[in-house]
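Phytase, Pseudidiomarina sp. PP-1MA. Tokens?
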Amino acid sequence: MNKLTLALTLWLAGSSGLQAQALPEQVSQLPLKRSHALGSEQQLWGAMDGDTQQLHLWRQTPAARSPADAQLVWQGEVTTRVVEDICFYQSEQNGQLSVFLIGGRGGAEQWLLRQDQHWLSTPMVLREFSVPYDATACALHENQLLIAEGDQAIWAYHAEPEADQGRDLIAAKYPFGAIKGELKALEVLADGRLLALEEAPPRLLEYRVTETGYQLTQTYPIDKFEELQDIRVLANGKLLVSNEDTGASTQLSLTKPAQAQPPRATKAQIAQVAAGLQTTPASRRGDAIDDPAVWVHPLQPQLSRIVATDKRIGLMVYDMQGQLVQELLVGRLNNVDLRGQLAAASLRNDNSIQLFDISDDGEFSVAANIATDLNEIYGLCMGYNAADNTTSVYVNSKSGRIQHYQVQPHQQGWRASLVRTMQVPTQPEGCVVDDQTQRLFVGEEDHAVWLFDAAATAGTTGQRIIQVDQHPELVDDIEGLAFTYHDGQPLLFVSSQGNDSYLVFEGQAPWRMLSQFRIRANVELGIDGASETDGIEVTSLSLGEGFKEGAFLVQDGRNWQPEAGQNLKLVPLQEILKLVTQP
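Tokens:
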């Protein structure tokens, strides 16, 4: 056994807690290697062949009698970039095991390997994203992906595939920080300390996470070597630093921290569902698609229509295959809703309400425009009162004003009357009406969900029923609201934009939270998850095959797979109802 193979053997044994054992020969012969503990008795090995750009993944299971029995999980060529480093990430939030491929020319990918203990036959690309052009190494700390940028910096990215792609600077080049040479390896110890290896002259930097960020706690010059390129953690608590090109290596002992890192609390996994359909991406990148609605065909549900506002150009209409069938280019629409054969949307160009007629076969056409005296018109929803056969439009502005209009047919068109004005303290947007009980729900983005009487003759005073500061699962902004009944039980859906999740509340007092869930990738259909959601919608009516019990519709603020304009995701409602606890 050569020196490098022995070193890697010790590294794998130390990082997983397993007894020392020889590496499979095919792993030891490849230059770039990583390991990940799958449990107390299982290990995942990854190796990258820099000559052929072949990625190799093996799994060591308890049933394996020797390293040669390691099970090949997957191997294949990486054709999209030259890989500088690979890092494995096990998400506590969604039960996914993925691998990051870090390229040295500004690009990176996250591949899904396993979901809910099921190994994919072929890895699925969850997202592609930009990293520094001179990226050299990576490591994972909790839900942070740490990336070294040559001799310049270390950056932290969020490792969750649906999270914001922003980054934070955690270490910088001298004189702004301690970095002096090119960083060739990163490693995170079990106690949370971050180790960064400078290549030449070799030097090890040790960082510790504090309340204010990563702080340099120690530097270790490494004498008698011109260059070192890799860090490995050994079973005896020591480190092995090595040069794979020359086979040179040495062991280091780190100074124990004066104060032990407190154990990190494990976060409970949030329930996950997957979309069964997505719409064609918006033609324009950036913040475009905002709010969905659905028109249900009364006789043939498979001919129903999905509607979305594109807040740059107008109203988008899709069929039940997610294909765009109509564009009504009326201007900067924000929110949309519909009742029967009438749809309404808030038009930001002139702070008006734009109405649309809907034909019997689901074709939308521009109808009347209703002027308002609102400044910065924003959210909108509709309601229908069967007692007096009236249709209402509720529209709000960023100032917190809410106006209630009644609309009715008038000489081949529509006429609207302002019947009352309501108010919430700060900016609202999403709203929804329970037609059955004539209740209006309004989301005050940073603070609460409000309840008003929806009737035109009712008062104008509302009541806070769900507050952000009383529900840690609800993280502002409150963007979208939706309402439906299931087996007679009223359900209120709330978009919790701040943590990319969705909450279901009992749709009546005491407003108990019944479920929290996220929308993750659908492996079989190749549909990415949903995040940074604005508007939502729900229907318990059949929309045809795949959605016979209804659907939950969300705007996807980050459409990753592939990276494209924003769109809508549709989740079969029955998959969500399985998660809802009974009151």
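Confidence is low (pLDDT under 50) at residues 1-22.
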